[in-house]
Structure to design on (245 residues):
């Protein structure tokens, strides 16, 4: 009888831990979809409001406000990562929403550059690639963390060269960067999903407010990471296949 009770308790703990892991994973994707929705609304609203766009884009290119809209999201990501433990969860949510809005502002520019059909096709392609790699990252037994340093180096190099190309304006380099970006962010999707899965599996259900807030923060940061990966995959595909107006 005691052995049966012990086995029952072990099974209950195992089921409980799996439930916590699945709930955490679901929260990550929920926040990611929230960010996508906010960015989509912001991009459409701004692209359809010329009176606001004139403050971001002038005849000679981006205005100072336009450059702020482009580079401010990077600062917000750094802030969230550096101050995650010190900021409250509501404060992190506020920064996350602000980041999503500013990303939508940046994405509104592509609505002015590319045709709607090419944007829709590239978005569908990005969503399909992301979904496939997310499943692979979740189910694979291969430890993808061994590729972390290579992927991070690739991302840093891609960002630096992309910033340089903003001032050079090389179409050929932009095209090449598109292929490099697709390769990097496709692989990064699988890596990030596996990393988030492991974080969820490592969570302890302590049942106190501190543990709950920590779990919520980690879910939000995981959503931010996946959201950035998806957006960059989408933009990389646009660099290659996007049809300009």
């Amino acid at each position: 009888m005691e052995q049966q009770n012990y086995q029952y308790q072990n099974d209950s703990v195992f089921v409980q831990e799996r439930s916590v892991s699945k709930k955490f994973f679901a929260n990550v994707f929920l926040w990611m979809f929230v960010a996508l929705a906010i960015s989509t609304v912001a991009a459409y609203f701004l692209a359809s409001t010329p009176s606001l766009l004139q403050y971001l884009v002038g005849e000679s290119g981006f205005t100072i406000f336009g450059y702020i809209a482009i580079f401010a999201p990077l600062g917000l990501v750094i802030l969230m990562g550096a101050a995650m433990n010190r900021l409250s969860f509501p404060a992190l949510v506020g920064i996350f929403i602000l980041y999503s809005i500013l990303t939508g502002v940046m994405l509104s520019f592509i609505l002015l550059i590319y045709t709607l059909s090419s944007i829709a096709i590239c978005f569908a392609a990005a969503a399909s690639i992301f979904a496939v790699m997310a499943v692979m990252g979740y189910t694979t037994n291969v430890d993808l963390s061994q590729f972390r340093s290579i992927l991070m180096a690739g991302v840093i190099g891609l960002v630096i060269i992309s910033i340089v190309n903003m001032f050079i304006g090389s179409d050929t380099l932009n095209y090449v960067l598109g292929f490099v970006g697709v390769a990097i962010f496709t692989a990064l999707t699988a890596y990030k999903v596996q990393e988030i899965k492991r974080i969820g599996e490592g969570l302890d259900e302590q049942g106190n407010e501190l543990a709950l807030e920590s779990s919520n923060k980690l879910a939000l940061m995981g959503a931010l990471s996946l959201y950035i990966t998806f957006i960059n995959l989408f933009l990389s595909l646009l660099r290659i296949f996007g049809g300009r107006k």
In short: The chain has one domain: 2-241.
